[in-house]
What does this fold into?
Amino acid sequence: MNTVTPTNHAPVRRGMSRSQSERLSTWFSYALLVLGSIVILVPFAWMISTSLKMKADVYIFPPQWIPNPIQWHNYVEAFTTFPFDLYTYNSLIIVVFVLIGTLFSCSFSAYGFSRLQAPGRNFIFMVLLATMMLPSAVTMVPIYLFFNKLGWVDTFMPLIVPAWFGSAFFIFMMRQFFMGIPYELEDSARIDGCSTYGIWARIMVPLSKPVLVTVAVFTFMGTWNDFMGPLIYLTDENKRTLALGLSYFQGSARSAPDLHLLMAASLYAIAPCVILYFLCQKIFVKGMVFTGVKG
Amino acid sequence: MNTKKRWWTRSRREALDGYVFMTPAILGLLFFMLGPIGASAYFSFTEYDILSTPKWVGLDNYVNLFKDSLFWQSLRVTMIYSVVSVPLGLTVSLALALLLNKNIRGIFLFRTIFYLPAVMSGVAVALLWKWIFNPDFGLINWAIGLLSLEGPKWFIDEQWALPPIIIMSLWGVGGSMLVYLAGLQGIPTDLYEAAEIDGANKRKQFRHITLPMLSPVIFFNLITGIIGALQVFTEGFIMTQGGPNNATLFSVLYLYRNAFSYLQMGYASALAWVLFLIILAFTLIIFKSSPMWVFYEGNRRSGK
It folds into this structure.
């Protein structure tokens, strides 16, 4: 193999060995992918299985994979133990307002940062980027005090209002996307008498659907799963979110949690995220590739 | 004269529009970033319980931090966690991305499955893993039992409390995997074709094309990974409450306790600033080292 082969033979020989090694590597990839999928799906299977078990069977060791009998009733019981409808409602309210705020403010600001020349624009953008490197721990305490002064503690305001003032990460993401949209579109709209605000609303926003969906999915999951925010700001039991409600559901130091009910409740809490991801997946991945982080 | 005047109006008009568009971000910076950052710096020099006015104590909080054994413990725990989990996460997510970048049948389904863990995060996952690592009824010890070995007392034994949280952190690599995947798809295929003509094998192609081309993404994931790892909170709070014997007392968890359980806002602020300086130091070191290993495509001279 090390010897120099005549050029007219080389492609044939190499072609054969390559297709063999490629087939081997494909099989190897499949094996790894299936193995990885099993590792990922086993905990899911276990969660589902446990959520349908009788309390006594949860602790059977070794674990019983198929519950006998199947306790659909667990789901009803989980929801009656804690006011999950109320928690869901609270989570939804927060998520909806955060989503609207994030999508509006980030796409709005990103347009300014990407297309409009204004003195100091780049400096402001750099400061914005620098805040991404700061740990939220640094500002957590003063922001809490700030909201406390405003009388917003124990309301949804601290969880919703900041979203209306943009997020560095998403502004950056949208900016990259806007910068890829051809100027010609903008110019011809301007000639047709469209204002800058009209261009944002009628050209930039409709053309950036994939990145908007990406931001929406990230925002939905982040807000829906957010634990620390509600933990810090909400003290009233009736204002708890689903993520927060779950943690109180795990029992206390003195009492063991009812695992079967806990898993039923957890699956219920995860379901909207999984459904949303399945629905958005195609656009989501595309958007990610399009705005991919590149030097 | 006339044209000059009109030109001026136009660019001023554009600048004005620009500021209007940037308003949300600028206000956000002022309200939720710059103000709180300044305030926390001030509070870190005071004694403050939220209810009464802050009392200036100078460097007392910082001096006390150095004498506080729990602070050192939380720092140690956070460091161990970060040093192990960040490289592990980077490697695993890169390997997964390479695997999922292959053009094989059913890849769409596999991409869905592998991203699934990132979809579910936070409390539900922390609870799930707490249960998986349960020493008596958990899946892990059951699997170890199948090999007729005895599993460790996860979470109960001080020595075995942190490893499950590190293993669990791998569950969340889906996000960085997606960023790698995006980076991989951005590498021009002509580079590989050229390399193949030059007789480079797959391993050489990976070392001389994939890794350099991907280095900006690796850099991004490394920075965000470190920042994230040094601020880990939810896992320690939900799964172990910092125990046993503070073996999983992460820095942010300790900060949270000081601020919201003991109402020592001044001390918590000092803690936050020390943590910030540590994160900044790490970030700067990596930024400084980046010219040695991060390759930006803008510098690439397309050879053959």
User: Anything to note?
Assistant: Chain B touches chain A through 98 residues (CB under 8 Å). The two ends of chain B are 53 Å apart (CA to CA).
